[in-house]
Design brief:
Chain A is an all-alpha fold and about 150 residues long. Chain A has one domain. In chain A, α2 crosses α4. Chain B is mainly alpha-helical and about 250 residues long. Chain B has two domains: about 110 residues, no CATH class; about 130 residues, no CATH class. In chain B, strands 1-2-3 form a three-stranded antiparallel β-sheet, covered by helices on one side. In chain B, a hairpin with a 3-residue loop joins β1 and β2. The chains are: A mainly alpha (about 150), B mainly alpha (about 250). At the A-B interface, α1, α4, α5 and α6 of A face α3, α6, α10 and α11 of B.
């Protein structure tokens, strides 16, 4: 039951954030699927006690791979699928909490949040670096194949 | 003849810079902007072009000629429809389906060409972002409705302040203050349970989480200037939201 709700809500939050960021109508569903998969990877990894940072890393890899798939299928830039799908993972909450804690005088909690922001954003960026390598390899292989076909 | 050549070069530069400006304003990655600009120039017959893109300004020139132009970028938001349109137009231009003049014309009119969702739908969507994320971040059903409503109000405050006043960072501050105040009132009158859950949900459509992550990606891709500029903007947005909420806490709790 809990799994179902998480699946549905991460899908919904990605689609609705897609509406806020003006994603083309016919791509909303693909964004939602990418976001739900990313969050489910994050959530299950975190529930296995693997740590939130590692879970973010794996979630970003999942999102990156699905974005590559959808961007090739629909012939659209990857960013369109990346940005809305990331919304459940990105460290927006801790970023504001850091400032709030510091303004209210709780420096320890504030710096705790800042470290969390840096680690989370770093983990997601690292995850995308990995999928970037996959994309480049894919491009090289496919382009070589296409060039080969032309010659023969 | 000489004059003709000059206007053509001018048109290529104009088109490339316009495409780059639209993409940077709409939240595209730096490498994609540079790539698109160079590709348009190449397809228009200028093989040796140099583009230098930062989050706050673009430079474009042709190697071994005396043409260089700049364009500044003052607005940065996320509008993925525009990224998709520029991408499509650049593809069509590469396939010779449209001419350079048509491409230029279409880019000039992009605000009329790009469909947007209606404001009421955007506000509704912002409310749904708030309550669904609040729940999967570990909230409970008791706060669900309050977060939905406060999220909608917070986003509308940000949207209309930006529309009417257009002062940087002030819209986020005012929206955060409203969210904090309403969350405090909701808990005080026993309409909801946990003020922290409501706030964290309701600020989700505003917080710069995506901007922070994108700035890290820019830096890792080697675009140090853009990454730092985007990070600075994100820090100030987070700052205005945090201060907005903190003022409510100081005043009332």
């Amino acid at each position: 039951m809990e799994v179902l709700i998480h699946c549905l809500f991460s899908y919904l939050s990605t689609v609705t954030f897609g509406i806020v960021t003006n994603v083309p109508r016919k791509l909303l569903n693909a964004c939602g699927i990418t976001g739900a998969v990313g969050w489910m990877i994050y959530w299950s990894t975190k529930n296995l006690e693997a740590g939130a940072i590692f879970a973010n890393f794996l979630g970003a890899i999942g999102i990156g791979l699905l974005s590559i798939y959808f961007s090739r299928k629909k012939k659209m830039p990857m960013t369109i699928f990346n940005i809305p799908s990331l919304v459940p993972l990105v460290p927006g909450g801790p970023a504001y909490q850091a400032v709030r804690s510091i303004v209210l005088g709780d420096y320890v909690l504030g710096f705790h949040s800042i470290i969390k922001v840096i680690m989370t954003a770093g983990a997601i960026a690292a995850g995308f670096m990995v999928t970037g390598i996959v994309e480049r390899l894919l491009k090289n292989v496919l382009d070589k194949n296409r060039a080969g076909f032309k010659k023969t | 003849m000489e004059e003709n050549k000059q206007t053509n070069t001018q048109l290529i530069l104009d088109t490339c810079l316009m495409a780059g400006k639209i993409m940077t304003e709409s939240g595209s990655e730096v490498y994609r902007v540079e790539d698109t600009m160079n590709r348009i120039a190449e397809n228009a017959g200028q093989k040796e072009s140099v583009s230098y893109v930062t989050a706050t300004g673009l430079f474009m020139g042709f190697r071994s000629s005396n043409y260089t132009q700049l364009e500044n970028v003052t607005e940065r938001s996320i509008n993925l429809e525009k990224v998709a349109i520029v991408n499509n137009l650049s593809r069509k231009f590469a396939d010779k389906e449209i001419s350079l003049v048509e491409l230029n014309h279409k880019l000039t009119n992009i605000n009329h060409e790009a469909p947007t969702y209606s404001v009421s739908l955007q506000i509704l969507a912002a409310g749904l972002v708030s309550c669904t994320l609040m729940y999967i971040f570990g909230g409970n059903w008791h706060d669900f409705l309050a977060t939905f409503l406060i999220g909608m109000i917070g986003y509308s405050v940000a949207y209309f302040t930006k529309e009417w006043l257009n002062i940087k960072f002030f819209d986020d501050f005012l929206a955060a203050f409203t969210i904090g105040l309403l969350a405090y009132l909701a808990v005080k009158f026993h309409l909801a349970g946990n003020i922290d859950n409501i706030i964290i949900g309701a600020v989700m459509p505003l917080v710069p989480g995506v901007a922070i992550t994108n700035s890290f990606r820019d830096i890792l891709a080697g675009h140090l200037l853009s990454g730092t500029a985007r990070a600075t903007e994100a820090i100030f947005v987070a700052g205005s939201i945090g201060i907005g909420i903190a003022i409510v806490f100081k005043l009332f709790m």
